[in-house]
Amino acid sequence: MFGDYSIGDLGSIFVMQGFAGLILFSVYVLMALGLAIIFGQMGVINMAHGEFMILGAYVTWMTSNFFQSYLPSLFSGYFFLAMILAFLASGALGMLVEWVLIRHLYKRPLDTLLATWGLSLMLQQAYRSIFGAREVGVELPQWMLGSLHVTDSIEVPINGVFVMGLTVLITIGVAYIMFRSRWGRQVRAVVQNRIMAGAVGINTAKVDRYTFALGCGIAGVAGSAFTMIGSTGPTSGQLYIVDTFLVVVFGGAASLLGTIASAFSISQTQSTLEFFMSGSMAKVLTLLAVVGILMLRPQGLFALKVRK
Amino acid sequence: MNDSRFATRSELIGILVLAVFLVVILPLCLDVFRLNLVAKYLTYAFVALGLVICWGYGGILSLGQGVFFGLGGYCMAMFLKLEASSVENTKIQSTPGIPDFMDWNQITALPFFWKPFHSLTFTILAVILVPGIFALIIGAAMFKRRVGGTYFAIITQAVAAILTILIVGQQGYTGGINGMTDLRTLKGWDIRPDHAKVVLYFFEVGLLFACICIAQLVRHSKLGRILVAMRDQEDRVRFSGYSVANFKIFAFCIAAIFAAIGGAMFALNVGFMSPSFVGIVPSIEMVIYTAVGGRLSILGAVYGTLLVNFAKTSLSESFPELWLFGLGGLFIAVVLAFPNGLAGIWGDYVQPRIGKLMGTRKPKAGWTDNSVADGAPAE
What we know:
The structure holds 2 protein chains of 2 kinds. Chain A is mostly helical. Chain A has 11 helices and 2 strands; from the N terminus they run ααααββααααααα.
């Protein structure tokens, strides 16, 4: 399959496909970060994670429409406000969902799966009723359009670079919150031993609620970033949910570094394969490889040695 | 519960009531179109029945039952499609004698894995063996390494996604997104007219009761009790010297085979098979049938399937917007408020009242002594 290309062409192909893979990687990481907190840390299977992401995307879309009609002069910077709003909206919804639904189900992880699947169906229908069944696209500000010419055969889109930068920042932020802040220490304490954490004076119910909300909020930001590279429809979230779960499981559920590594390997494999065969076969081969490796190494790439 | 009995008296009455309902009442009350709809719903009841054993008793939640439903359905559909694509029927194609979708995709010879499906015996064996062996491989790979619970659910879900993408992508070999349509005859016997639909319905009900009997046997045998013990205290069962993995593999394979029989009946009753019954969404919907019926109740699975599907058909006919809200709400309500489903409501509220009216105290049925809420599998 390499025969028809010269060495130089192949180099460019790998760089371009690698870059396409990096954008996919960013989306995976952003989605998986929230899920790594909710599923990896709390053990809750949140099938509605994609819908929290789409909520962020719709918030971004509404913000961009608002800026276009009322504050066109500030339009070039709307995105930063939209991201904060997306975080708050998804986080608030997450908090509500935790209070109504999830907190009753911590002891039954498989049942959270069914309940959140039901929630995802309801959210999808709600989006369809409110925003319509058609996919919506966000108008990008001028400075995000176009692409950077690195060499004459390699060019990279600016919005992709922006999404990647954003991903790096958010990842560092999450790592800081989880591993360096007092609150992150409380979260990890509750996860490792709920009873002891409660005994030393941590309000475990409150920590649970805010952890869930944080995970959902990050999903919202992921949705916000997602609008820059794709259009948003009521069921867009569902397309990514299985992939995201695989990313988290493949990386080793409790490991943030593992999540990033697995998102990287999955997205790079898929986008490189996509060049040589149809998109569907590339996806099948990637998923098969992931499932195959998981069967041989069920604990994922980076397993934390925790006594259960 | 007595040892080695097929069913308690109340269960036997329950099976008889269901038999009367399916064999006498429904065929008398419904026209052929509606009866065919019931036949379609009942194909999902096979899946729900398998899930009762696998999920309710074994504690293994599989989100990939659509895979086995689909494999069974596709095996049957391949046989029917080959029969429908005889040389006389397909003279106008550039290559007569192969299925129409292959001709459209410029395939000129029948692929090797299609050839054995000329034989009905092979097809029937394949309907059972292909999904059974597939489940055996997945189950052995996962359970021997002690992967279970949520991880297993996610991986089965990924398998469902893979198979769907594969079927849709390989249009020339599988019919793609449209699936295999225009299935006509079974060994020369036309499956499309009304009287054939009625015959198929009764045949399906017969198969369903055979599966119910197998499920009852499993449940009341020592095997069934080990499954329940394993669900509640896996380590203790392992320390007692049982091979936990093998029991799990068995439960998963039985569920897969039941699902495959359902799929094959689906292809016969409905006359087509498509990837939309394989993927993640239908697989999870099949789980909800079991959950609504009561994940510990064999008969509840049948009632749950019928009820959810009737609700789906009537609601989505008249209020398409409301249906997803309804289904979503149903998921949440069943999980939060009624973890034992219809069977739980029956056992907790209806049966004691009937007992009071009759003036007798019936022994409590099986589902109350191992309800879900307290017996959740330990992770």
